[in-house]
Structure formats: C-alpha cells, structure tokens
Design a protein that fits this description.
This protein is mostly helical. 60% of the residues lie in helices and 0% in strands. Helix 3 crosses helix 6 and helix 5 crosses helix 6. 20% of the residues are buried.
Amino acid sequence: MNNLKVSFLILVSLVFLLSVRQSNISKNNELYAVLQTVQDSVKWAAPASANKLINPYEANDENIEIGKRIYRKHCRSCHGKTGDGQGVGAADLLTTVTNFTNPALFEQTDGSMFWKISEGRNEMEPYSNKIDEEDIWLVILYIKTFSSESSKQ
C-alpha cells in the first residue's frame, strides 16, 4: 500500500511540475512576442537638425576601405559580416539590430546615420565616446555599400 501511495505522489508531482514548466514557457513566449512587437514598432528617428549634417568625405575606394576597417573593429560583432544585423553579438540583445542590406537605408541622410551612431540607443552605446567624428563619417561610407550591393541583386 505504501508503494502505491509513493507512486501516486510521484505521479502527481510530475504532472504538477510539467504543467508549471509549460505555463512558464508559454508566458516567456508571450513576453517575447510583446517585446518583439514593441521593438519593431519603434522607429529610430534622428532629430531634423541631424538631417542637415553633410558627410565631409567622398565615397571613394580609399575612404570606403578605411570605413571597412573601422566597421570590422566596432560594428561587425552585432551588425554582421554582411551587414544583415545577424552578427554573433546580436543574438542576446533585446534591441533589434539594424540590417544595413535593406535598400530603405538610402532614405536616411548621412547626417541621420551620423547622429544615430554618435548617440546610440538602448544596448548600442554612443560611439562618439569610442571613435572620433572622422571615423564615424568614414564607417557610414562603408555601411552604405551593403545596401547598394543588395539593391543590385
């Protein structure tokens, strides 16, 4: 009789634990869906004054190559080798990482991109604290090559 009671208690405990675990998984999935919706619905807009900033560097091979080196050092871990926003550092972030291969990138001014890189948001820290203005302008030239390459395909 004792064995039957013990077996019954074990069975009831297992059913309870499995139902609690399933409930937590469901809650976590719901929370993830809400967070993803909030992130995707937030447009990151630079102030109008930023749109007036002009990139002082010409988009030539030399400047793009310098921008590429800066990108590799400071941006690639999150934005990815191909600029698609799928770098290894992006996996654990709550903030959606910008996909530089999206042709809509051309709708932004260099000044807007400069402001975003300089100021940062959420988990992306302000890069004005890490690299100088010249390097930010040069990395923008390289970032724009991702979008131009994807629009040719």
